[in-house]
Specification:
CATH architecture: Orthogonal Bundle
Number of strands: 2
Strand order of the largest sheet: 1-2
Structural class: mainly alpha
CATH topology: Farnesyl Diphosphate Synthase
Distance between the termini: 14 Å
Helix content: over 70%
CATH superfamily: Farnesyl Diphosphate Synthase
Length: 320
C-alpha cells in the first residue's frame, strides 16, 4: 500500500486525532478501554477507502474525516461484539476487550462505539453518511444471522455463501467507498459506482480470508478455524458440491461432529485441496477483484486511482 500511505500520509495522521476525539469518554473505565482500542487499531483499510474515494472527486474535507471516523467506529464496534459472540480471547495478536474486561463490559463498549458514531453524524447533519453506514450495519447483522442459520444444517449453496459475504463483509467496504465519495462528488451515479466497486473489492477480501483457513503459513489465526466453527467458506462449498457422495457424507459428518479433532480437520483440508476447492476460490476471488478494477477504470487515470487499485490488489495479494 505504498502509494496510498504516501499520498494519504497527512490525512491518516490527522485522522488519528479525529478518531481519538470521537471515542473520548468522561467515564474513566471507558476512556481506558478507548485508549487501548486506539493503540491497537489495524491497517485502517476502510478509512483509506473512504479518503481515496473522496479524493477521486475532490479535496478531502471535514465531512470526509467524519465519514472515516464513523466507518472506524462502526467497524470497531462490530469487532468488539464479534469477539463476544465467538468467545475469542485475541484480536490482531492482542487480548480482546472481553478477555480483559469480560463480556458485559465488551457489549457495552460496542454499544458505546455505535452510539458515538450515530451522534457524530447526527450532530453534524451528515445524513447521507449516516444512511449509508446504518444500512451497512443492518446488512452485517443479517449476514451474520444468515450464516448462523445455514451453518446449523450445512445448507451450503454457493448463492447463500455470496449472500452472506455480500452482507457480512462487503457491505462495510462498499459503504466506506460510497460515504467517502458522497463528501466530494455531486453526481450520485459516481457515488453508486464507487459503492459497487467497494462491494466487489469486499467480496474478494472475504474470499481471501476464506483461503487463509487452508494455508500452511502463519496468517495470524489458526488453520482450520472456520471448519471448527462450521462456517460456510467457498473452498468447502465447492468441494461438497463436487466430490462423490461417500466423501461428501464423511466431510459433513466431520464438520458437524468432529470439528475439534485436529486430524479430522486436517483430512477436510486435504480433501478440499484435492478436489480443487482452493483453486476454484482463487479464481472467483480474482474475478471479483478484476470486476472491481473495471469499475474503478471508469474514472480518469490519476495517482489516487492508482492508490485505490493498489489497495484492491493488496486485499487479494496479502499474506495475512
Amino acid at each position: 500500500m505504498e502509494i496510498a500511505n504516501r499520498i494519504l500520509a497527512r490525512e491518516l495522521k490527522e485522522f488519528e486525532g479525529h478518531f481519538k476525539a470521537a471515542v473520548k469518554s468522561n467515564v474513566a473505565l471507558l476512556d481506558t478501554i478507548m485508549q487501548y482500542i486506539v493503540k491497537r487499531k489495524g491497517k485502517q483499510l476502510r478509512p483509506m477507502f473512504v479518503f481515496l474515494s473522496a479524493r477521486l472527486g475532490g479535496d478531502i474535507n471535514e465531512k470526509t474525516f467524519r465519514a472515516a471516523s464513523l466507518v472506524e467506529l462502526l467497524h470497531t464496534a462490530t469487532l468488539v461484539h464479534d469477539d463476544v459472540v465467538d468467545e475469542s480471547l485475541e484480536r490482531r495478536g492482542f487480548f480482546s476487550i472481553n478477555a480483559l474486561w469480560k463480556n458485559k463490559v465488551a457489549v457495552l463498549v460496542g454499544d458505546y462505539l455505535l452510539s458515538k458514531g450515530l451522534l457524530l453524524s447526527l450532530n453534524n447533519n451528515d445524513f447521507k453518511t449516516l444512511q449509508l453506514l446504518s444500512t451497512a450495519v443492518k446488512q452485517m447483522s443479517e449476514g451474520e444471522l444468515l450464516q448462523i442459520e445455514k451453518s446449523r444444517n450445512l445448507n451450503l449453496s454457493e448463492d447463500v455463501y455470496f449472500d452472506i459475504i455480500r452482507n457480512k463483509t462487503a457491505s462495510l467496504v462498499a459503504s466506506s467507498c460510497a460515504a467517502g465519495a458522497s463528501t466530494t462528488f455531486n453526481n450520485e451515479g459516481d457515488v453508486e459506482t464507487l459503492r459497487d466497486f467497494g462491494e466487489k473489492a469486499g467480496i474478494a477480501f472475504q474470499i481471501k480470508d476464506d483461503l487463509f483457513d487452508y494455508s500452511t503459513a502463519n496468517v495470524g489465526k489458526p488453520t482450520g478455524n472456520d471448519i471448527k466453527e462450521k462456517k460456510l467458506t467457498l473452498p468447502l462449498i465447492y468441494t461438497l458440491n463436487n466430490v462423490d457422495k461417500t466423501v461428501r457424507r464423511k466431510l459433513i459428518y466431520i464438520i458437524k461432529n468432529e470439528n475439534t479433532n485436529k486430524e479430522k480437520v486436517a483430512y477436510v483440508i486435504s480433501e478440499v485441496t484435492k478436489a480443487g476447492g482452493i483453486a476454484y476460490a482463487e479464481k472467483k476471488m480474482l474475478m471479483y477483484r478484476d470486476e472491481a478494477l473495471l469499475l474503478l477504470y471508469k474514472f480518469p487515470a490519476s495517482e489516487v486511482r492508482d492508490a485505490l487499485e493498489e489497495l484492491v490488489r493488496y486485499t487479494t495479494d496479502r499474506k495475512y
